[in-house]
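[job 4417] fold queue: 2 targets
>>> target A
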Amino acid sequence: MNSRACRDRSAQRAVVVKALAHPSRLMIAEALADGERCVCELTALIGADMSTVSKHLALMKSVGLIEPEKRGLNVYYRLSCPCFADLLRCVDLITRKQAAALQRVAG
């Protein structure tokens, strides 16, 4: 792959990763990894007002992380890619390694 293509791919990846770089958006994505949720459930999970959660959802939707489906008066969201749980497992592995390294240094 040429350097231009690598830069483009990296830039596209950065957009998606940045969209996850907020605790509330990560909580939403983790919840959706277990199945679709309506906005009201996500609002309760985050503990924020509806407008704040809607902004988070709009950002996640704009980068293609989630897909909405309107049913009656409610909107349900689901992850657009089922492999998201794999990413979380990878992140968890990294954070466990960091914690273990810190314990070794402190111990």
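>>> target B
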Amino acid sequence: MLTNPSIGLLFWQLVIFLILLFLLTKFAWKPILSSLKERESSIEGALRMADQAKLEMQELKAGNEKLLAEARLERDRILKEATTVSNQLIEQAKTRATEEGSRMIVQAREAIQNEKNAALAEVKNTAAKLSIDIAERILRRELADSPAQQQLVDSYLKEVKLN
């Protein structure tokens, strides 16, 4: 019987199928289709947002790379400037040290010359005092007797040339 269905069975199956189809189209198709459309639109929105986010990320990445390049250039400029300033400071310090050294050498030479002159003057003064003391002692001894005095005066007069 199941292998040979009767016309009545086919009729009722067709009627039930059409009623079921009517009910499904009336109550189920619209919500199913609307939820499918809603799902499709949410997926499209998500894809658009993902594309937009991707573009924004690329823009941010390009901006970051630009900022990084600018930062590197600024760092290089600052390092170059610092190197230049340090070289200038070193040169100034060398120049000042050389000038100070030269000034100190000149002062030392002047001080040495002054000390030398003072020592020579003292030696001359001492030699003059000693010479005067020796001459005084010799003159006292020789002038003790009168003929020696006369002979000394005569010898001095011979030595002195009158103009």
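[job 4417] complete. Note on B: The chain has a mean pLDDT of 87.
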